[in-house]
Design brief:
The chain is 54% helix and 10% strand. The chain is of the alpha/beta class. Helix 6 links the parallel strand 4 and strand 5. Helix 1 packs across helix 2, helix 1 runs parallel beside helix 3 and helix 2 packs across helix 7. The longest helix is centred in the C-terminal third of the chain and has 28 residues.
Length: 177
């Protein structure tokens, strides 16, 4: 897709703050490679290409707060403001849409994670991408799929590969009859 003008036409996804933090850490500190952090950035990259990333006011506020307070790591110093701002402006804002939360019958054990379920319900999202065990263990009762970044990468990557094969097959048929 690549065109951010048609965000309203795209399927929707909600990304838990913990995944956004790991994705930012992977981009800002590439010298500190953690494989699961790279999986989070890859999920964010796929979500940007194929979906619109949906936030409610609560999920957006949590993401902004957490991204602003992430520590550099071993030295414990705060991440530079300009690096955080650049990450958000480059990787999130152009692909994001605000939605109204909708109460759902699916209840999370951790009440602080309920906002992601309500964001998914309000967005009519296909996925919640999370590494939070309280969200991942839920029976979603038709709300949406709640998946780890690597599961999202596999599923969306496979679907993209299937689409490419279909296009190539259609081109062969059109060319050779």
């Amino acid at each position: 897709m690549g065109d951010t003008d048609n965000l309203h036409d795209r399927p929707r996804v909600v990304i838990d703050t913990c995944v956004l933090l790991r994705a930012m850490y992977d981009r800002v500190f590439p010298e500190r490679k953690f494989p699961d952090y790279n999986l989070s950035f890859n999920a964010l990259a796929l979500a940007r290409r194929e979906y619109v990333i949906c936030f409610t006011e609560d999920t957006r506020d949590e993401a902004i707060y957490m991204l602003a307070h992430i520590k550099r790591g071993l030295d414990g110093g705060p991440l530079r403001h300009d690096a955080r701002l650049q990450f958000v402006q480059r990787y999130i804002e152009p692909y994001a849409m605000m939605v109204q939360p909708v109460p759902t019958n699916v209840i999370c054990r951790d009440k602080n994670d309920q906002m992601f379920l309500e964001a998914a319900a309000g967005a009519k999202a296909e996925y919640i991408i999370s590494t939070d065990s309280d969200l991942l263990r839920l029976e979603h009762d038709g709300l949406c799929q709640i998946v780890l970044p690597e599961q999202f990468n596999r599923e969306v990557g496979k679907r993209r590969g299937d689409k490419r094969r279909e296009v190539k097959q259609a081109q062969k048929v059109a060319t050779y009859g």
